[in-house]
Amino acid sequence: MSAACPLSVVHPISRRELLFVVLIALLGAALRFWDLSAIAVEHFDEGVYASNLWFTAEEGYRYPDRHLYAPPLLPSLIEWSLLIFGTAGWVPALPSVIAGVCTIPLIWWMGRKLAGPTAGLAAAILLATNDVHVLYSRTALTEAVLCFFMLLSVSLAHCTFLELKNPPVFSKRSIGLAVLSGLMAGLAWLTKYNGWLSLAIIYSGSLAWAVFGRFSVAQWKWLLAHYVLIGFVAGVIWVPYLLSLDKFGGYAAVAANHRQYFGGLAEWGPALARQISNQWQLSSWTTLVGLIAVGVFICSRLMLKLESLEMRWSRSGAWMVASWIIGLSVAIPLYHPYPRLVVPWWIGVLLAFGGLAAWLQIRAERLGKTLPARPAAIGLAVLALVAFAGPFLESPAWEKRTELEIIAEDFVKITASRAKQAGLAGNEVIFYVYGEPAVFYHISSLDRLAGPIGHLDFAKPETRLNNAPTYLVVGPHAHESDLFVEQWDALGSWFEPVHTTEVRPSRLVQLNNVEPGSGAAVDEYTLYQLKPAP
């Protein structure tokens, strides 16, 4: 086995273990690919990320101010997915679905390096059935892709540090692993602005390992040299994008936008309580089934075939997992309690649970509390079937999220009919969409000329460019805008209401509210037509 992962020598990878990994990954894939027709762009940020295709070179091939929401990697992946697979409602979620599935064998690999086969398989089971991770793997949001690159970067750094010998030796292998770790950290950073957390986890965790391990001067030099290499490669990936922000006001503009979501220590307690509530509301029987399955696994002899029952932890890996959990546990409640912020936290926690499962299995073996392999395997197969209770019951991870797509289709049909009545082609209309990127995305994907706006200046007679039928789509974000309310008082008389519809947003969107139950139970979307100028 690889010299970079000595735990593979202590615990050789068996065919049975590989079979378990494949089966767990297939279960995770089935849960994430389940009824893709039920998902479509709905979240505000999804609309921003998915809309590259509808903008010209003069507009930078991107939604206005997209840099305030995320770096370009995920929007680019979504753009290529749309070019290759078409504009079906589920296509923008494809990068997240694939990343979510790939994270399952990756967490197994990190878990077995951390504490052996049981730790890896337990972590994989828990991730495969984790409702929150399944949910965000079925969106066009950044979390699933971010978690994949973060975990891969940390895992490669862990392999790098396992190369440290006494006395330390610089090798092509350790250098290559450090380069790959830095590359993955850079890609995490290009996925989401907090992707630098992978570097923070690597540095803080391994620093604690070195301090408590009482490294020699030579070992410190080896470690710091690899620190520099990992950080340098990540910087090479990140800095070009950072410099590209100069034309938009630099990173200071991004940071200023992020600060409005920073609650600080004063809001830490309420935000923590809200995040706990979020995770509870987004979970279902599927998560519980994963926990039970790990319990069955712990009490069985399906994988425990060791000559020695001695627990073998990777200290460097354990310190990095501890850094991952503690750092995010402290930092996440400092921000507006968006449920999506907790998704990376789950990766560290499930790794820790994997290590706990390995320890508990050894205790069960010593106490003689183990199940025979056959009934344990049957029990796990039954639990795998029960895991689909979540999809069948349409729990939050599998809730239908196509309402805005349907609204856009209805608006397009209505305007096409009105255009034909006026003797025009059905697509000879213009849409302006006020503060609703998801609706803008769906209208644009239906081959209609649409523009995202944050003002009503186009309604002024002196600013009108043509006489084509022009429509305005207004949703809940417009009514939250002081500018819209002000301009509507002055310009609202220029608009004729055509159609209004109400929709209940999915739990994914509802839980973005600061307080449970805040905001309207339903969202209202109205289609207006701009009246001709005199």
Report what the structure shows.
With 534 residues, this protein is mainly alpha-helical. Helices cover 58% and strands 6% of the residues. The chain has 23 helices and five strands. It has helices spanning 7-10, 15-33, 44-49, 73-85, 94-115, 117-128, 131-137, 143-161, 172-191, 197-212, 217-244, 250-259, 268-282, 285-298, 315-331, 343-366, 373-386, 389-392, 403-421, 437-445, 476-479, 482-491, 507-510, and strands spanning 430-434, 449-453, 470-474, 495-503, 523-530. Strands 2-1-3-5-4 form a five-stranded mixed beta sheet. Helix 5 packs antiparallel against helix 7, helix 9 (172-191) runs parallel beside helix 11 and helix 15 (315-331) packs across helix 16.
State the end-to-end distance.
80 Å
Largest sheet composition: 5 strands, mixed
Q: Low-confidence segments, ≥5 residues, pLDDT <50?
A: none
Backbone CA Rg: 26 Å
What proportion strand? 5-15%
Strand/helix succession: HHHHHHHHHHHHHHHHHHHEHEEHHEHE
Share of helix among residues?
55-70%
Total strands: the figure is 5
Strand order of the largest sheet: 2-1-3-5-4
Work out the helix count. Answer: 23
User: Rough shape?
Assistant: globular
Q: Structural class from helices and strands?
A: mainly alpha
> What's the average pLDDT?
91
Summarize the structure.
It is built from 23 helices and 5 strands.
How do the strands and helices of this protein lay out in sequence?
Blueprint: H1 7-10, H2 15-33, H3 44-49, H4 73-85, H5 94-115, H6 117-128, H7 131-137, H8 143-161, H9 172-191, H10 197-212, H11 217-244, H12 250-259, H13 268-282, H14 285-298, H15 315-331, H16 343-366, H17 373-386, H18 389-392, H19 403-421, E1 430-434, H20 437-445, E2 449-453, E3 470-474, H21 476-479, H22 482-491, E4 495-503, H23 507-510, E5 523-530
Parallel strand pairs: 1-2, 1-3
Antiparallel strand pairs: 3-5, 4-5
Helix pairs in contact: 2-5, 2-6, 5-6, 5-7, 5-8, 5-16, 6-14, 6-16, 8-9, 8-10, 9-11, 10-15, 14-16, 14-17, 15-16, 19-20
